[in-house]
Amino acid sequence: MSEAAVTLARPRIERTCVVRTAAGRSVAGPVLAIAVLLALPALPVSPASAGETGLISFDELLKRDTLTGDWGGSRKKLEDAGIKLGVQEQSEVWGNLAGGISKSLHYNGLAIPSVNFDLEKLWGLKGGLIYSQFYEIHGRGPSATLVGNQQQLSNIEATPAFKLYMLYYEQQLLNDRLNIRIGQEGANDEMMLSASAALFLNSSFGFPDHLAQNLPNGGPNYPMGVPMVRARLKVTEELTLVGAAFDGDPAGKGPGDPQRRNATGTEFRLKDPVLAFGEVWYSIGQSENSKVLPATFKLGGWYHDGVYSDRSRDSNGNSLAQTGAPPRHYRGDYAFYGIVDQMLWREPGTKDQGLTAFGLAMFGPDDRNRESAYIEGGFNWKGPFGRANDIAGIAVAYAQTSDSLRRFGAQTVALTGTGKGYRPHETVIEATYYYQLASWLSIQPDVQYVINPGASLDQDPAAKTPGDSLTVGIRTRVDF
Q1: Who's near 443: CB < 8 A, 6+ residues apart?
Q2: pLDDT digits (tens, 9 = 90+) for 141-155
């Protein structure tokens, strides 16, 4: 499949009642806003009255690229000059129906202001751009208090804050075959990506849980960008090589929430161990005249140059649970992975509507990791029910607890008679439907079933182990 960015929906609709989150915040405002938008078609606005009052019909509103339009021509003038401004709001409501930790509703959201500078238009520097993106995170994510899972239900849930996420310079060279980027972003913005997996809301489909559990402070991942450099070379029409290096720790050592330690996104850390990636992409069927269905295959690996502790053995090779001695240490951690996006069937007469399968498998050493393997896969159907821009999908994400960690847990319980062991895996099954009402407005209902929530996480011995959970959510996306 094409590597073009996939912009997907974000929902959140309810009746006109007031709903309050566990934190006590009213979410009536976002509910009412969506209700008003959905009620607009019922407002009788004639062409004459629209011209007299300045109002527009709902059909005209839906034809806009953004909710606020062209700002009387100012937006287009700015873009023609090389400056593109954007603001997007994603809002969600989640409810846990069964299992997990508690049954209640949570609201969370993310506003994304961004500025793009086209340096060719501004200064005549061909192929150059500067891009910045900020996050205003609000509400309360559902995973920690509703389900207790490690693969977060929402890829936008995070500690509330306003922070810088992306700030980079990008340059096209060699007739656009070579692309260099340097600045700040997260590893999940370009590496380990399946275009089809971008549909799904669970965080693992964007940043595999293998890294989130094994790297320091969860690794360079939303919402914490880090200094980085990336080079992408298009060798042929089919073959692309990608290499990247990131600062390997977004927050450093310290107590409490790492997202609070890097609260503004302006740490610009440069002295931590490096996290390096390499990928090879092979794409077929990308041209309009191709006789084969489009597909992209990727092989990659990452290496983190930090110091890691053995999960079950001490420096002499004996059981950590028995001796309590310092653990064995290793220099570096790594994993290898493969990704496939393959269209299986195309709707006749269309370019990209049809059924697509995708998958990702990642494996790393068992001894130093909480997780030793991660596997995901699923199917997308673009254009269901005659709606060209809608997408329906179902997917599974499997995060395997390392044998080393499970052995340590079992030995600790056997020796002390207290504590809890670690379960063999956490698995998420997600079904979702992306409903695009307009270029600037989408709604996405979502259902997730989580098996063994928090399998490789340390559990409070006094707390009840979370049961398999069934959670429903709805996200809206509005581009202003």
Answers
A1: 9, 10, 11, 12, 13, 435, 437, 474, 475, 476
A2: 999 999 999 999 999
